[in-house]
Amino acid sequence: MGSHSPGGHPIVTLTDVRVPAGNLLGGEGEGFVIAQKRLAGGRLAHAMRWIGVSQRALDMTSERLLQRRSFGKELARHQGLQFMIADSAMDLYASKLMVLHAAWKVENGLPYRQEIAMTKTFVSEAFGRIVDRAVQIHGAAGIAMDLPIARWYQDARAARIYDGASEVHRMTIARELLKLSMQGQSTRQATGDIF
């Protein structure tokens, strides 16, 4: 489900594979560490794509509110719907700042594992909330395949799973918070360490 990978993800099974020592990338047993380093950039790239799609969904939703009428007035004049797009704007703002900060830490060689986990989790879930609101405001048009919104809705659900499920990232985040607390330290450095 979803369009995050043209052709989908195949299942590949490797059995009794032997790799000559000269063909190893890194040292024996270092595969997980190498993969984790690659995942940081990949997770940020996903988050940036989700932000772009979320922005497009909010643009389309705002246009819809101005064009569609209900009960004798534009949907944009209904306060409950205004709240929905305001919430989407706040989700986008927080998502953008998280990505920028995490990318800055990666670029400057600072510890970034906690920020990547928080960013991947928050932005994937914000993406889901923003697109869910877009579906709701578009009504039947939001679930029809004529607009890209229904496809984005599928993509948003998948985003909480691939490159680390939200639950796994939450365990990583909590583990760091508890480690600092057990050492008698503030959890500040595990919450972005900004100020």
Summarize the structure.
The chain has 195 residues and is mostly helical. It contains 6 helices and 2 strands, in the order αββααααα. It has a two-stranded antiparallel sheet.
Explained architecture:
The chain has 195 residues and is mainly α. 64% of the residues lie in helices and 2% in strands. The chain has a domain at 38-165: Butyryl-CoA Dehydrogenase, subunit A, domain 3. It has 6 helices and 2 strands; from the N terminus they run αββααααα. The protein has a two-stranded antiparallel sheet. A hairpin with a 2-residue loop joins strand 1 and strand 2. The mean pLDDT is 92. Keywords: FAD, Flavoprotein, Oxidoreductase. One of its GO terms (molecular function) is acyl-CoA dehydrogenase activity.
CATH topology name of the domain at 38-165, in short, is Butyryl-CoA Dehydrogenase, subunit A, domain 3
Contiguous low-pLDDT stretches (5 residues minimum) are: none
The tally of helices reads: 6
- CATH architecture classification name of the domain at 38-165: Up-down Bundle
C-alpha geometry: globular
What's the CATH class label of the domain at 38-165? Mainly Alpha
User: Structural class of the secondary structure composition?
Assistant: mainly alpha
Strand order in the sheet with the most strands: 1-2
Strand content: under 5%
Helicity level = 55-70%
The rounded distance between the terminal residues' Cα atoms is 40 Å
Assigned CATH superfamily of the domain at 38-165: Butyryl-CoA Dehydrogenase, subunit A, domain 3
Domain Acyl-CoA dehydrogenase/oxidase C-terminal: 29-178
InterPro entries: Acyl-CoA_dehydrogenase, Acyl-CoA_Oxase/DH_mid-dom_sf, AcylCo_DH-like_C, AcylCo_DH/oxidase_C
Protein name: Acyl-CoA dehydrogenase/oxidase C-terminal domain-containing protein
Keywords: FAD, Flavoprotein, Oxidoreductase
